[in-house]
Specification:
By secondary structure, the chain is an alpha+beta fold. The chain has four helices and twelve strands.
């Protein structure tokens, strides 16, 4: 046996995040998990996700941008005739639409597509420049807020992509408010129901205002 060499002895274990040489120097991947008996509960899944978010892990994981594939970075362009130069972005924690001009605008208007926090068949949108913050609705208005691990926020931050209400592109329906789609109205962004009681529910331009083009990311 070569001097100084000691063969590796393995015992039953679960090892997360080690390098290819069995060291702890890996920089390529990070794994977060939990040991459960049988199928993990929703609470366990939520706790794992909350740990990842609280650690501030972000990035697009190498997935090409411009698609609704989880891990892709995207921007969302308004398609109403008045507003085709405006994109959905966050500003002071609120979701708004604006023309993009500065580097800050570009970062604010870039989102990372994630599997839905409350429904993995749908999607959630993580802020590119505020890792761990997600687009969510509260009192119908959309905001950028840190994911707190709660079931309510997971629901509020989950949207299901559908064919565009105007006949093209894409619309995004709230997971926990079926029939309410992401809509821009007077430069702010809401979940809106066609013909509902709120001002932003007006039937005027509802289909166009709730239709978005998924584009390559600004940042």
């Amino acid at each position: 046996m070569k001097s100084g060499y000691s063969p590796m002895h393995q015992e039953g274990a679960i090892v997360l995040g080690t390098g290819g040489d069995n060291s702890n120097a890996d920089v390529g991947s990070f794994f977060e998990g939990a040991m459960t008996t049988g199928v993990p509960s929703d609470a366990a899944d939520s706790a794992v996700q909350a740990n990842i978010v609280s650690a501030g892990y972000g990035g697009s994981n190498g997935v090409p941008g411009g698609s609704l594939t989880p891990g892709s970075s995207i921007s969302l362009r308004a398609t109403t005739a008045c507003c085709t130069t405006r994109y959905l972005r966050h500003a002071n924690g609120d979701a708004v639409t604006s023309v993009i001009s500065s580097d800050l605008d570009k970062a604010d208007a870039t989102w990372i597509v994630r599997r839905g926090l409350a429904n993995q068949s749908c999607l959630s949108f993580e802020s590119k420049n505020y890792p761990g913050d997600y687009l969510r609705h509260s009192n119908y208005q959309l905001h950028r807020q840190p994911f707190d691990g709660s079931g309510l926020m997971a629901q509020d931050a989950t949207f299901c992509a559908t064919a565009g209400n105007s006949g093209a592109y894409t619309s995004f329906q709230s997971n926990n408010y079926p029939g309410y789609d992401i809509r821009h109205y007077n430069s702010n962004v809401y979940i809106a129901h066609n013909g509902g009681a709120n001002p932003w529910d007006t039937t005027t331009l509802w289909a166009q205002d709730t239709t978005w083009e998924v584009t390559a990311p600004w940042a």
